[in-house]
Specification:
Number of domains: 2
Largest sheet: 7 strands, mixed
Number of helices: 12
Protein name: FAS1 domain-containing protein
CATH topology of the largest domain: FAS1 domain
GO cellular component, one term: extracellular space
Signal peptide: 1-16
Structural class: alpha+beta
Distance between the termini: 58 Å
Keywords: Signal
Domain FAS1: 22-153, 160-291
Bound molecules: 2-acetamido-2-deoxy-beta-D-glucopyranose
Length: 302
Amino acid sequence: MKLLIISLALCTCNMAIPIEPSTTSLLELLNNSGFSELKEALVKHNMTNIINASEPMTIFAPSNEAFKNLKQNPWTKNMTHAMMEKLLGRLVVLRRKLLPADVRNEMIVDTVSNEKLRLNVYPKVRTVNGIMVVMEPNVQNQQVIIYRLNRFPMAPPPGRDIFEMLNRRKERFSTLVRAIEVANLKDTLKTGGPYTLFAPNNEAFKALPEARLAKLMESPAELKSILLGHVINGTYFLGALLESPELPALSSGLNKIAVNGMNVTVNGTKVFTREGMIAENGAIHVIDRVLLPSNTTAPPSV
Ligand SMILES: *[C@@H]1O[C@H](CO)[C@@H](O)[C@H](O)[C@H]1NC(C)=O
Ligand SMILES: *[C@@H]1O[C@H](CO)[C@@H](O)[C@H](O)[C@H]1NC(C)=O
Ligand SMILES: *[C@@H]1O[C@H](CO)[C@@H](O)[C@H](O)[C@H]1NC(C)=O
Ligand SMILES: *[C@@H]1O[C@H](CO)[C@@H](O)[C@H](O)[C@H]1NC(C)=O
Ligand SMILES: *[C@@H]1O[C@H](CO)[C@@H](O)[C@H](O)[C@H]1NC(C)=O
Ligand SMILES: *[C@@H]1O[C@H](CO)[C@@H](O)[C@H](O)[C@H]1NC(C)=O
Ligand SMILES: *[C@@H]1O[C@H](CO)[C@@H](O)[C@H](O)[C@H]1NC(C)=O
Ligand SMILES: *[C@@H]1O[C@H](CO)[C@@H](O)[C@H](O)[C@H]1NC(C)=O
């Protein structure tokens, strides 16, 4: 009922708004700046009205290549209209022309899709929800600034904090979830942060001697200190790992990040770079060994 009223209200005010010539020029600007796929998608999904305002705006524009990949990827090639609306809405920040100099590390901005984007500034790269963003050169007119992305940013559904992301994937992280609860770190990972968690999957815990795991599960304090060795203060997506030789863990040690091409390891343990996740309060990287302080120098098991 409420929804219906809202949508009726939207229709009414849409009709009341005079046609803005600026929309055409913004669409033209997108098209002429090499974002013709984005322009077409906005038209196709009836979303030109969102860029119809004569207000400041920031657009994170996926390249035509990104659209091509989206259409070829078996997971995303036949997205519904509603899904596309969300994906496109996520790219647009209203009422704000965010200049490169305005961007701060861990800045959160609201988007048309009601999802949030997390902006990160690292020494060499900047990211939007973990996707590298090209800040310069950008395209702009008086009101609007357009930044180029080479991929579509994902966004966590509302309420998916780091703990909840794991809790929703019990088939892979049930032991970690239990360990977090035993160590009394659930609240930290739900409401603290932003953090980066190196998340050992169930195989990682299975690789521990059974008696050791059983004992750990009965030693909240030890478990807590071990788990905090997996948590980094701040959001480090893959792009950031690639340029961070070491990261401070909450347990106060420095985790060593080694990079060889796209093979990334943390203290010698392989990071599953294709399985990274974004949570409302940070990033999650999957690993298949538990990082134990006394065993960190051992070579990765093959
Ligand atoms: C701008 O919005 C108005 C009102 O919603 C609409 O009639 C018009 O077609 C829009 N312009 C474009 C180019 O989409
Ligand atoms: C969009 O841009 C291409 C060049 O990239 C141009 O050929 C085409 O005419 C443009 N379309 C519109 C509607 O402006
Ligand atoms: C876009 O709007 C037009 C008319 O306003 C409608 O005919 C068309 O089905 C809409 N397209 C989508 C994808 O909803
Ligand atoms: C999605 O694509 C597959 C082919 O890859 C097709 O068989 C299926 O019908 C499509 N589903 C929808 C909802 O369009
Ligand atoms: C995390 O970093 C922020 C910003 O640098 C700092 O204010 C905060 O105290 C740090 N938290 C922990 C637990 O180290
Ligand atoms: C990355 O790891 C794979 C095996 O996981 C290996 O085959 C490949 O050679 C490694 N690449 C580099 C650059 O070390
Ligand atoms: C990772 O290795 C460093 C030393 O290289 C150590 O200080 C740190 O405690 C280790 N982290 C964990 C979680 O074991
Ligand atoms: C270190 O690893 C070895 C096997 O690689 C294992 O036997 C030992 O229990 C581990 N040490 C700790 C403290 O977990």
